[in-house]
Task: structure prediction
Amino acid sequence: MIDPRAIIDPSAEIGADVEIGPWSMIGPDVTIGDGCRIGPLAIIKGPTTLGKRNQVFQFATVGEDTPALAYKGEPTTLIMGDDNIVREKVTIHRGMLQDRGATVIGSNNLFMADVHIGHDCVVGDHVIMANNASLAGHVSVGDHANFGGFAGVLQFRTVGAFTHIAAYSYVRKDIPPYVTAEGNPACAVGLNVEGMRRRGVEKTVSAALDHAYKTAYRAGLTAKEACDALEDEASRHREVRMFVDAIRSSEHGIIRPRRGSQAT
Result:
């Protein structure tokens, strides 16, 4: 199941039932979990750990050094969970010591062709990034976030769980959970209603999130005032608590509707 033309460093640890295609390169300090499938002409450099049943397609580069000028070659890591799909020409860089020193990818994610994930990013589970979507360094992405093609996120920003970022959007501020963002710069255009429907969010929860969204974006309140007004509802609904806590903890401010528009 390992093609004889693959180049595998003797220190690499390869699990059971792993497939590695021709001309792929597996470097030192790489661990590949059971059942992974590495296509031809893929590169995996270490220190990198892949969990079980990950698929890495041709021309992808996983675990490369970051090109950030502050990086001086110090040992850093990439850690990936299980059941991820890394399509053609995806690039995922390891961390740098000026931050956590690690890039961390969860499980059950889909990274389509030409996606880039920069150093020290933390990506949750069930995230979908369409072709050419990119994360700069130090970006945090919550579970079930969905990125359209060519969407980009500025460094140190946070993209909340269950969000949707439309194609070609440029995210310069944090995005609270369950919000849809669109444009350059990205603005709030409503809740991720379709994502909520697909995941079976109950009507009472949807109504609570709708009220929270309108309080934060349409009531003319400051972020702090909106969060204070939503505390009672946040105590009853975990999803509203996620929304409120994300706004309170934002260090760079949250995205807002376009001037003169009313976000739905």
Notes: DSSP finds five helices and 27 strands in the chain.
